[in-house]
Amino acid sequence: MSWNNVSSIGQKRRVCLLMTTSIAGLLLTSAALSQEAANIELNTIVIDGDTSPTGPDKGYIAKNTMTGAKTDTPIREIPQSISVVTREQMDDRISEQIEDTIAYTSGVTASPWGVDDRFDQFLIRGFDIGPYAVYRDGLPQKAIDFSGFKAEPYGLERVEVLKGPASVLYGSNEVGGIVNLVTKRPTQDPLYSAYAGYGSFNTYEAGIDLGGPLDKEGVWTYRLTGLFRDGQTQTDFSRNNRVFIAPAITWSPSADTSLTILANYQWDELTPNTFLPIASPAFPNIPKFSRSFTTSDPNFDRFDADHGSIGYEFEHSFNEEWKIWQNVRYSQQGTDYRHLYFSSMIDADTMDRAAFTVDETATLFSVDNGVQYDYEGKRIKNTLLMGLSYDRQTVDGQNGFGTGPSLDIDDPVFGIDVPSPSIIVDRRQTVDQVGLYAQTQTKFDDHWLLTLGGRQSWVEDKTFDRIGNSTSEQSDSAFSGRVGLGYLFDNGLTPYISYSESFTPTIGQGFGGQTFSPSEGQQYEAGVKYEPDFFPATITGSVFEITKSNVLTPDPNNPNFQVQTGEVRHRGLELETTVNLYHGVSLTGSYTYLDAEITSSNVAGEVGNRPAIVPEHQAALWAKYTFETGALEGLNVGSGVRYVGGSFGDNLNEIEVADYTLVDAAISYEKNGWKGSLKASNVFDKEYYSTCNSSNSSCIYGEGRTIKATLSAKF
To answer: Measured in Å, how far apart are the chain's first and last C-alpha atoms?
Structure first.
C-alpha cells in the first residue's frame, strides 16, 4: 500500500505535535514523581454503579462516557458538548429507529428526510451527516454507498451524541459530530425479560432480553437480545419487517482482564422514501396528496438488507497505572434495493418516474488499539492515551438507472411489470484508513482541566470500474488537533473552552486531473456544564462556531467540473437539561439556535443564504411522573413536545418548508414484574413536510401519528 508523501516541514510539524501530546502526560508525571517520591499515598477505591461509561444507568442521567475521550471520563470533564440518551429514556418513548432516540437532543434534527427507512438520518449542528456519522461501541458503522447498517435500538444500552469535530479520536469524519451506539452487554445479575406489542399500520413485534452469569464464580457472563417485527408504515404497499438477534459473552478471569465478544444479525424488509409533487407555477392545480400515497409500485420497490457483525473488546490492566485495550469488529451487509420514484410532471395529470436499483455487498473491518497510562499525585492527575487504528471498507456491486413508466395521478394503476433499468455503475471500491493518535487529560489541583490531542491519518481509496475496465486511486493524509480547558467548581459548575478539527476525504478530480483535498472543519466552542449537588440533574449550555472549508462548488471556467472554494459557517447556541427529580418526576429538555450560512460558493445567489434543510430554532421537552405510593403505585405518565423551526428546501432559499410542532405521550403500569404500556408519537396526527425539493417541486411527509401497545415481563 502506498501513501501520499507530505512535505518534510509539514511532516516534522505533525510528528512534533503528535509526540508533544504523547509525552506531555509523561513529563507532568515525571515532574510530580520527583517531588513526591518520598510521600506515596494509597487512594480509596469507590465503586459507583451510576458512573459506568457504558451503562446500565439509573433513570435519565448518565455521568460517565467513553465516547468523548475513549477513556472512562465524567461527562462534565469533556471539553465538548455531549448528550447521552439512556435505556430508560428509550423505553419511555417510541424508539423504533435511532432518529426516535435522539429526537429530544439539543443540536440534533431527527429524520430531516421524512419517512425513509433506508438509513439512520439526522443533522448534528446543521450538518446532514446521519448515514456517515454512526459508530457502534467506538468503531465505525457508517453507510457505504446504499448499505447503511441500520441499527435496532432494542439492542442498545445507550445512544451518545458527540457534537462537533471528532477526527482526533475517530479519524475521517464530517464536522458536525458523531452518534455512538452502545450495545447491551453481559450482566453479572440474572436478567430475564420479554415483551410483545402491536401498533399502527398492523405492526406486530416481540422481543427477548436475557443475561447473567454462566458459572458460579461469574467468570463467564452472557447476554442474548432478540426482536421480531412484521408490519407497515404510513405509505401504501410499505413494509416494516425485521428479525434481529444479538448474542454476547464476557470472560473475566480477574478484575484486571476481560474479553467481551459482541455479535448481531439483522434481516430487514423496509421501504424507501416517497417525494410527492406539489402545486407549482408550472402546474398550479396539482392536488395535495395524502401521506399514504406512493409514487412507486409494489412489484418493483423494495429495500432488503441482510447485515451482521462480530467483534470483541479486550482489556488488560498490568497495574494501577498501565492498561492496554483492543476493539475489533467485522461487519457485512448485502443490499437489494429497487426504487421507482417521482422525477417530474409530464402534464397536469401525469408524473414521470425514474427507476433506480442497487445490488451490492459492503464490508467494514475495524481495529482500534490503545495504551493508557494513569497517574495520580498530590496535585496532578493525568491520563495519557496513545492509539493506533485501522479501518477497511469495501463495496462491490451494481447500480442501475433509467426512465420508469409514467403514472396517472387521477387514476393510478399499481402492480405492473417494471423492466430493470440499465446498469450505470459496476465497481469494487476499497477505502483503507490508518490513524496514529494521542491524547492527554490532565487535572491540576482537582480543579483545572486540560485536554490535548492529535492524530495523523492516512487514507487510500481504490476503485475498479468494470464498465470502463479501469482503476482509479486516491491517497490523502491529514493532521487533526484538539485542545480544551475547563475548571471544576466545588458546587458542580464546569465552564470550558475548546478547539477541535475534522477532515473528510473528497473523492474526484478537478479540470486539470488533480485529485481533491480533504474537506476540513474547525470548531470553537465555549460552554458550561452543571451537576448540582442538591438534586440529581445535569444542565449544559454551549455556544460554538464551525467552519467547513474545501467544499466542492462548480468551476466557473469549466462548468462540467468542480473546484474546492466552497465554505459554510454554522454558529449556534445549545441548552439541555436532564433531571431525575425526587417524588417520581423525570424530564429532559433542550433548545437549539443555529445561524447557518453559505459563506463561499460559485453558484449565483447562494452566498449569504441558509443551507438547505437546516432549521434556525428547535426545542423539545419530555416529562414523566411515576406514582411511587398509594393506590396508583406503579403508574407512569409521560408526555413531550417537539418544535422544529422552518427551513429551506434548497441552497438558493427559493422554497420554504414550514415549521411544525409534535406532541408525544405514554402511559404504563407496572406490578409484580409485569408492565403494560401505551405510547404514541405525533398524538394529534400533525400533517407536515420534513423537507422539499425545488428542482422538481416535490416534498416528503414527516411521520404521522404512531401508536404502540406492549405487554412486558421481567422474571
So the answer is: 54
